[in-house]
Amino acid sequence: MRAVLYENAKRYAEERNIPYIETSALDATNVEQAFRSLIADIYRNWTARKDSM
């Protein structure tokens, strides 16, 4: 069962300039990748801010 249409989610992410990774809690598709991507983005932002101080 799809809770959100792909097109709607993709458009929402693009409008806000945020990454979009489709996941599934049912079979854990891309769940680990989504968390790894989130952590990598947080780390990149943190180091960029730290270096600019």
From TrEMBL:
Annotated Gene3D superfamilies: P-loop containing nucleotide triphosphate hydrolases (3.40.50.300)
One function term, GO molecular function aspect: GTP binding
Stored PROSITE patterns: RAB
Pfam families in alphabetical order: Ras
InterPro entries per record: P-loop_NTPase, Small_GTPase
The name this protein goes by in its record: Uncharacterized protein
Source organism per UniProt: Rotaria magnacalcarata
